[in-house]
Sequence to fold (478 residues):
Amino acid sequence: MLKGGSQARSFFRTMASRSRDFSKVLEAIDSLIPKTSAKPLGPSPAQMSNADAMAFGMKKLGITEKQLKELNVIHIAGTKGKGSTASMCESILRHHGLKTAMFTSPHLISVTERVRINGMPVSEETFATHFWSVWDKLREDESSEMEEVPKTTFFRFMTLVALHCFTHEDIDVAVIEVGMGGRLDATNSIPAPVVCGITHIGLDHVEVLGNTLSLIAAEKAGICKKDIPCLIAPGQHPEAQEQLVTSATKAGAPHVTCPSFSEYSGDAKVGLEGVHQLDNASLAVGLCHTWLQLKKEGKSSIPSFPFTLTDAFKSGLAETRWDGRCQTIQVNDKLRVMIDGAHTDQSMKVAVNWFREKAAPEREKRLVFFCQQRDVEQLLSVFKDVSIFKKAHFTPLLSSKGSIHASNVVSSEALEWVQKQCDVWKAMVPSVEAVVCSSLPSVIDELSNTTEEMDVLFTGSLYLAGDVLKAFKSKATA
Fold:
């Protein structure tokens, strides 16, 4: 981690003198991620606001307000379904013949997934080019401004890399997903999106955003801006819905709550699995329709809903793919895995219901679980009345919030946390066997060699989803 001015300058000079291949990109990124075990010597990155940091960064990069406006942004906040909604918007607009860009987080396998052009992650070479352009611009002056570089957080830096890429790609539309919250998020430095959208609100990141739906909704609605249309996903909790409407009104943003997906005519199918995706699809359809009406048809207000979905809308929805969310992989003739990065109690219920509907009655069913430092009792309470699993496996991760790199080394603290999750399960669901696994590869190897026909649900964390996808991808190419 960059800890002080002289150390930071030395690190940046060192990186500037090294080769600029993608492995060095990952090394540089790793320096921006806080290591929880380390205590920074200098000011915390949090002491510089996102607004100030992003203004500083864009000034250094020469990104103007005019350029940001020309990105024709769809800006999406919310607790659940942001990435799914963003991916549907991107696919729909690409099927309308537009050149699209998309910025999302987190990534599952490669950091390049965060920055996409026409639906595909940019190449490692392209990512590296824009990464080093941002890196060098932020360190080019050995002045007092240089002290701001160590305060640039990983997410701010990735936002700047995405914006630098998009402003050099002659795109038609950029779909931008909020990182966390909305009001104070780095992505909220975009001054005038074409339209904003807010997905379902739930209790998450309560230590930062507040411990009620109303408080969290107010933070999410912080992306609302005067005269910029704001669309709200259907199916909101009444407390969240009331606050979203209040916040949008206060901001002077014309707003509408999208109808249920079933109200759109045109017999469209959603490519992403899970009944919960229908609310995300309704919002995505509304955002794209509004964008097209404002940018292509020259309209000046939110269009009426619902409407008949054209072929471009239907194809875009049907062909949307978004890994790690209600995703099924047939590993071999015996093993089928189902992966969902659910990490709130509400999304966990959705994932479990999806698995129950998808899993074959005659096949043995297993659970592989890991969650980050969250309320594990609340998350696992979802499984209290679920009697379909024969066995539950609790495993540490390969990836970490503290590093861009995966590691096969499991710390004693990580194993203690996994043991706690297993102990909570045993107290809540004593009828189902539960075991602690030494590592994720060990449980994957065990399951891959099964002689029984088996369906396995991997859930609890997007980091787990990414590790599992990477592991099975590796096995497939071995």
Summary: The chain has 17 helices and 14 strands.
